[in-house]
What does this fold into?
Amino acid sequence: MDIRVQATPFDFGAEANRFAQGRDDAGAIVTFTGVVRNNADGSLSHMEIEHYPGMTEKAIASITTDAMTRWSLKDALVIHRHGTLAPGEMIMMVATAAPHRVDAFAAAEYLMDYLKSRAPFWKKEHSKDGVHWVQSKDEDEAALDRWT
It folds into this structure.
């Protein structure tokens, strides 16, 4: 299990290859990368992502440990960036390895839903309309509810 919260960009291909390298204990590896999405009108200048070092990593490690047990994962990787990110930049990556694809996909979705709704990050969007904090959406909460 590898949990990283970092300001620096990551190389998705290199991370996916490293995660999969030499793995013969899993029949499925699932990867997902989240990207900073621009507003529909193209007005997003950048996003600021804040967190509390230590607390954030501990929270993500806890939910990842839960996923490892719940779906019998062989390994998991979560990378989430903080700081100032522009539209199109990679914001996060999840990778899961499991004996079977159903478990690898389910665990990856679970982790992504958690990162979207519950991980202790605070996001502020800067656009031509001003600056505002990103609020949790009902559909994100509903997605997380399916895991309880």
About this structure: The mean pLDDT is 94. The CA atoms of residues 80 and 92 lie 4 Å apart.
